[in-house]
Structure formats: structure tokens, C-alpha cells
Amino acid sequence: MAQKDLTTEYAKDIDNVKSVQNNMTVAKMPSAPEATMGEKIDDASITAEVKSSLLSHRSTSALHTTVTTTDGVVTLSGVAKNYAEKSLVTKLATDINGVTSVINNMTIGVPLADK
User: Fold this and answer.
1) Which terminus of the chain has a smaller tally of CB atoms within 10 A, N or C?
2) Is 20 part of a structural domain of the chain?
3) Residue 89 — left, alpha, or beta (φ > 0 → left; ψ -120 to 50 → alpha)?
4) Predicted pLDDT of residue 87
């Protein structure tokens, strides 16, 4: 749902837009098969991939997001601009190979550096 929410937020940000009715549907991704031992990825690599994914996506702020990984469980903290960004960060982390689950402790608000 993060993609749909984010699209709605983008549309609302356009000058002179009064309201947005988003009828977009998002297809579910098939579940991934269990990883073999050779496919297991260490925690440091997972953290690096999550941070890289956040850096490369223009709608997320890697600077305002802390990422830690323990046994494949990614924990996110920091400040998201809105719920759509928080959801997108969760989705991006979940999509990284080796991630078993994501705990998103991010808060919604304006990061101190942007005030």
C-alpha cells in the first residue's frame, strides 16, 4: 500500500490540486521460496543494502533513518515526513534479500535538520 499512499501524496503536492481520489490497485507479490544456506546474508550486508535502497529512492531520507539488523530482523528508527514515507521505508527494507522481518519504529514529523 505504500506505493498507492505515496502516489496520493505526490498528487496532493502539485500546485492547484484541490483533492485526490486514488483508484490505483497494487498487485500482491508472490511469496519468496525459503533461502538456502548459500543465500543467507549477514546482518551487516543487509543493513548496507537497506541504507543503499533508501539513498537511491528519492521519496525516502536515508539521513533521517537509522537501520540496524540482528539475525535478519531489520529495525528502523528516525523521522518520516508522512505515513506514506514510513510505509515505503518498511516496504523497501522488506524487499531486501535476507530480511526475515522489519520493525519500523519511525515517527511522523519534520526532521530537526529540515526545520
Assistant:
1) C
2) no
3) alpha
4) 92
Is residue 94 a part of any domain in this protein? yes
In a domain, 61, yes or no: yes
pTM for the structure as a whole: 0.64
Residues 6+ apart with CB under 8 A from 19: none
Task: Give first-to-last CA distance, the chain, whole Å.
Answer: 28
What domain range is 65 assigned to? 39-109
Do 43 and 70 meet the contact criterion of CB atoms below 8 Å apart? yes
Q: How far apart are CA 30 and CA 6, in angstroms?
A: 22
Mean pLDDT score of the chain: 82
CB of 90 closer than 8 Å to CB of 102: yes
